Amino acid sequence: MEEHAYSVEFPKFPRRRRQCCQRGTLLALLGLVTTAMWAGLLTLLLLWHWETVQKLKQLEKTAAQNDLETVQKLKQLEKTAAQNVSQVSKDLERHKGEQVAQESQAAKMSQSMEKIQDEQNRMKSQDSELSRNLNGLREDLSDLQSQGLNERRAALHTLDRLQEEVAKLWIELRVSNGSTCNTCPDDWVHFQKKCYYFGEGPKRWIQARFACSKLHGRLVSIHSQEEQDFLTRHANKKGSWIGLRDLNIEGEFVWMDQNPLDYSNWQPGEPNNGGQGEDCVMMRASGHWNDAFCGSYLDGWVCDRLVTC
Ligand code: MMA
Ligand code: CA
After folding, report:
1. Nearest ligand atom owner, CA of 271
2. Overall domain count for the chain
3. Are 284 and 307 in contact (CB under 8 A)?
């Protein structure tokens, strides 16, 4: 009956039924889509949750592993530290032992030092005594030496004079026996009892002295006005060295023939020991004497020697 009523009513409202069906389908579709979306969302959530859980598990695992490694490292460090501490304490003990040994050695050394210092002081006093004695001996020696030198000089002086005297006496003897004693070597000029050589060429006093001795003569000694006049006549016009000097004692002039200063012909105002000191005597062109610096170069120098028979 109802079915009939229904089928009866159906044609009356055909549009509304279609509308109703469309809406239902839409709703169903909507429901389906919503459900599918929810299902998808839920699946995503579940997936996300699962992934998060996995990650957490992984993290936990890593953390646990890290913890384990850290613990192991800490244990290793602890072990190493303990080893180091024991090593350090051993070293410390060893050092203590060494320190004690060094301290005792230092004490011994300071004792030795004290001994050495005592010894040094003793030696110093001995040394000063020795140096006093040495100085005394040195003084004695230099006294003896200067005494010896003076004696030697005096003896040489006497010998020279004696030789000179003997030579003169010998000549006088030969002359009194009738011999002719007036012989001079070539280039030498004879005057009275001597021969003279008038050297030329620049020389210092000492070089002139050496040149004369090489010629078996001496730098000239002058003992009379006649001799001086003879020399003035022959003298070099630029000046000549003669055999007179005051080398040892200033102002005390000595002739090369060792005879005393019995005649002089000083230029007025001379000798003056001028400039850097003047100990050697030269003869000017006028024949006058001047004390001059021994290192000066003079062009002339006069030698003498006794005549030979
Ligand atoms: C020179 C020199 C001296 C000498 C004086 C005299 C300047 O020095 O020859 O020995 O005494 O002249 O004026
Ligand atoms: Ca002078």
Report:
1. 2
2. 2
3. no
Structural domain includes residue 76: yes
What's the gap in Å between 290 CA and the centre of ligand 2?
Answer: 5
- What is the Cα–Cα distance from 221 to 181, expressed in whole angstroms? 20
For 223-253, write each residue's pLDDT tens digit.
999 999 999 999 899 999 999 999 999 999 9
Report pLDDT for 184.
97
Q: Which ligand is nearest to the CA of 291?
A: 2
Confidence check: pLDDT of 124 > 90: yes
Q: State if residue 272 touches ligand 1 by the CB under 6 angstroms criterion.
A: yes
**Which residue CA neighbors atom 5 of ligand 1 most closely?**
274
Residue numbers of the domain that contains 197: 181-306
Q: Quick one: pLDDT at residue 11?
A: 46
**35 is a domain residue:** no
What is the full DSSP assignment across 11-68? GGSHHHHHHHHHHHHHHHHHHHHHHHHHHHHHHHHHHHHHHHHHHHHHHHHHHHHHHH
Pull the structure tokens for residue 261. 């200063």
CB atoms within 10 A of CB 292: 21
- Best of 244, 267, 272 to mutate for ligand 1, by most ligand atoms within 8 A of CB? 272
168 neighbors 294 (Cβ within 8 angstroms): no
- pTM score, whole prediction: 0.55
